[in-house]
């Protein structure tokens, strides 16, 4: 573009920066940043927001903070990008300080902070902030509720998880893929596979993550036959996603729960030969467990070496 005599403008730089992030081109993005400074576009708020995200994406927190500190004008996206970046960097206290300084907060800002607490084993803080969010009349979105469900799982609170589910239904949230999958995960880990199955059955659209969550939950928590039956349904249903490595973790866990070495060997071979999936450590661990129970120590040693 530049070599052909077309100078970049303020709209060009942000899109190029985002492309660099998507393609992991750190050095090129630094060059683009330098060019933006040289051509006088470095103070554009849209570009600066993208630069903050870029530097956080590559783990350069100091550079991200430097861009933010130099901004003469900040919008809600600027503040929220800082909060999200600091949360992802594990700087929860600093993120909270920035959050509290925000002149205006939107649902994305609140959710970023709530999710930070949920992901960093501070579920009580997540719910405290959510209650404050409600008191300030900010309506949560689907992502807020998913963050709360993570907090419920961390707390191991089935009752609180059911409250979030009821809140979602009463406020018109539909069981779309993201929320539905999070509910399945929460119910399974909080000890209510029946509720997890009800959510799964009600979902009109299911992603690979949805199928994996249900199959793995059934396999891990002792419902091996149901897990394998659901896997068969997944394979034969029109429009269902293709199984991946995580799917077969659930399948092999089901074989372990059923103590069925024959089925385990069958699915392990099927995974590698039919789908071309390379085994990961979880697959090997399941097979080692099955071979150990059968007293086949030579196979245990062979697979143990494969992991190493």
Describe this entry's structure for a reader.
The chain is mainly α. The protein has 3 domains: about 100 residues, Serine Threonine Protein Phosphatase 5, Tetratricopeptide repeat (Alpha Horseshoe); about 100 residues, Serine Threonine Protein Phosphatase 5, Tetratricopeptide repeat (Alpha Horseshoe); about 100 residues. The chain is globular and about 70 Å long. The chain starts with 11 loop residues before the first helix and ends with a helix.
Low-pLDDT stretches: 1-6
How much beta, percentage-wise? Answer: under 5%
What is the CATH architecture term of the largest domain? Alpha Horseshoe
Number of strands: 0
N to C succession of SSEs: HHHHHHHHHHHHHHHHHH
Rg from alpha-carbon coordinates: 24 Å
State the helical fraction.
over 70%
Number of helices: 18
Tally of separate domains: 3
Mean pLDDT: 89
What is the global morphology?
A: globular
Query: Helix/strand-derived class?
Result: mainly alpha
CATH level-1 class of the largest domain: Mainly Alpha
Please describe the biggest sheet, giving its number of strands, its sense, and whether it closes into a barrel. Answer: none
The CATH topology of the largest domain, please? Serine Threonine Protein Phosphatase 5, Tetratricopeptide repeat
Cα end-to-end separation: 49 Å
Protein name: Pentatricopeptide repeat-containing protein
Keywords: Repeat
Pfam families: PPR, PPR_2
PPR repeats: 75-105, 106-140, 176-210
């Amino acid at each position: 573009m530049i070599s052909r005599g077309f100078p970049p403008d303020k709209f060009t730089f942000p899109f190029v920066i985002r492309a660099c992030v998507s393609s992991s081109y750190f050095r090129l993005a630094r060059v683009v940043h330098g060019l933006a400074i040289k051509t006088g576009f470095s103070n554009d708020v849209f570009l600066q927001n993208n630069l903050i995200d870029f530097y956080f994406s590559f783990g350069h927190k100091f550079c991200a903070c430097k861009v933010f500190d130099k901004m003469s004008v900040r919008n809600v996206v600027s503040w929220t990008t800082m909060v999200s970046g600091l949360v992802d960097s594990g700087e929860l206290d600093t993120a909270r300080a920035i959050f509290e300084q925000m002149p205006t907060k939107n649902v994305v800002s609140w959710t970023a902070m709530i999710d930070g607490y949920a992901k960093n084993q501070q579920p009580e803080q997540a719910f405290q902030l959510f209650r404050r969010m409600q008191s300030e009349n900010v309506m949560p979105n689907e992502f807020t509720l998913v963050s709360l469900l993570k907090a419920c799982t961390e707390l191991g609170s089935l009752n609180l998880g059911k409250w979030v589910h009821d809140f979602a239904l009463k406020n018109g949230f539909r069981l779309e893929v993201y929320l539905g999958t999070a509910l399945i995960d929460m119910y399974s880990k909080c000890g209510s596979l029946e509720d997890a199955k009800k959510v799964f059955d009600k979902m009109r659209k299911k992603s690979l993550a949805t199928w994996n969550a249900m199959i793995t939950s059934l396999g891990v928590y002792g419902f091996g036959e149901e897990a394998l039956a659901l896997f068969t349904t997944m394979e034969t249903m029109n429009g269902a996603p293709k199984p991946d490595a995580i799917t077969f973790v659930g399948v092999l866990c089901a074989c372990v729960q059923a103590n069925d070495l024959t089925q385990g060997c069958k699915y392990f071979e099927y995974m590698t030969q039919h789908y071309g999936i390379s085994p990961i450590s979880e697959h090997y661990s399941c097979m080692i467990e099955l071979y150990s129970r059968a007293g086949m120590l030579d196979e245990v040693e062979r697979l143990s070496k494969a992991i190493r």
